[in-house]
Amino acid sequence: MLFLNEKDILKAAAIEDMIAAVEKAYVVYEDNDFQMHARSHFTIQNNSVLFMPCSSDRAAGTKIVTVFPENKDRPVTQGAVVLVDSKNGAVKALLDGTVLTALRTGALGGAAAKFLASDEAKSVGLIGTGYQGLYQIIAVCAVCKIQEIFLFNRSSSKIPHFIRNLKAYIKNIPIHTAETAQDLVQKSDIIITATTSATPVLPEADLYQRKLIIGIGSYMPHMREFPEHLLQNLKQMFIDSHDAVNESGDILIPLQKGWLSEAQFIPFSKVVTQKVKPDFTQTRVFKSTGMALFDLIAAETVYEKAVQVQLGQELDF
Fold it and tell me: Which of 95, 228, 253, 305 is surrounded by the fewest CB atoms within 10 Å?
């Protein structure tokens, strides 16, 4: 069994490799060439533990992921991914699920920007400067010609550390701290929300026309990042899987209140496979809750690249 820690994974796969992996996952999803049950979700007080199994013709595996929103000295989201050899059933790899989740979720935002951002998009704003937000910015900058970055966090003390980490990856792009979420939205062509908030983090204001909003954070029914004004004025919302309709408050609440109908939710796999073309004259919204298929193909991609360059540690199992 090959063990791949954070350093191995970051050496093995660039963010561009992860974006290609999630695009591949969208094609597999559209072709329905996989098996995946709904994630099992358990709670520990106000925290979450999720089990996410999946298999395809080439690989099988599962991710165990925890979400502890109040963590201060550790990432909010942590986990491990186990890969199983589809030929003989052996456990062939154990991967650090914390960094893998961050990379593949960042890649989801990057893929959304690649297909949904207009060619004129030059600025990106991030609300929520945690571990996940770092890879969102890295991925968007990899696919768009970004000239300015804007950051906002309810706890502003976290921003200087975030900027130091970001500058290790992003060179020669000015990074600004927005005074308010409204200030960030006004100045950004692409807006990313990466929080676990139970109340909208975007302002109730007429500020979103022709912009791209990427919602990454809310993954449970009580969590919500999008405001009513944005939702009531949408033509459609792109979602990363059908399961998202049953998982995120950013979808469940608009459905319950009649702000959106089920017909307005479009699987993003149809954009990747060119069955649906986005309307760049409208506000575009992409909502992700993630799914095990992304983890499986991302893990398989990292594993294959690690084997090629001889990264990782072989363990007896």
Answer: 228
Task: Confirm or reject CATH 2.60.40.3760 for domain 109-290, answering yes or no.
Answer: no
Convert 267-312 into a string of H (helix), E (strand) and C (coil). Answer: ECHHHHCCCCCCCCCCCEEEECCCCHHHHHHHHHHHHHHHHHCCCC
Residue 317: what pLDDT?
66
Mean pLDDT value of segment 70-98 = 89
Instruction: Specify the CATH number of the domain 2-101+293-314.
Output: 3.30.1780.10
Instruction: Work out the angle between the directed axes of helices 131-143 and 97-116 (0-180°, nearest 10).
Output: 40
- Report pLDDT digits (tens) over 183-199: 999 999 999 999 989 99
Q: What is the pLDDT of residue 65?
A: 87
Do the beta carbons of residue 219 and residue 252 sit within 8 Å? no
Residue showing tokens 């929103």: 69
Q: How many residues does the chain have?
A: 317
* pTM score: 0.91
Predicted confidence at residue 233, as pLDDT, reads: 85
Phi-psi region of 7 (alpha: psi -120 to 50; beta: other; left: phi over 0): alpha
Q: Can you tell me whether residue 69 is helix, strand or coil? A: coil
- What is the signed CA dihedral for 57, 58, 61, 67, rounded to 10 degrees? -90
Query: Do the Cβ atoms of 15 and 138 come closer than 8 Å?
Result: yes
217: helix, coil or strand?
Answer: coil
* Domain coordinates in residue numbering, the chain: 2-101+293-314, 109-290
Task: State the alpha helices, DSSP H only, in the chain.
Answer: 6-12, 15-31, 97-116, 131-143, 159-167, 181-187, 228-232, 249-257, 269-272, 292-308
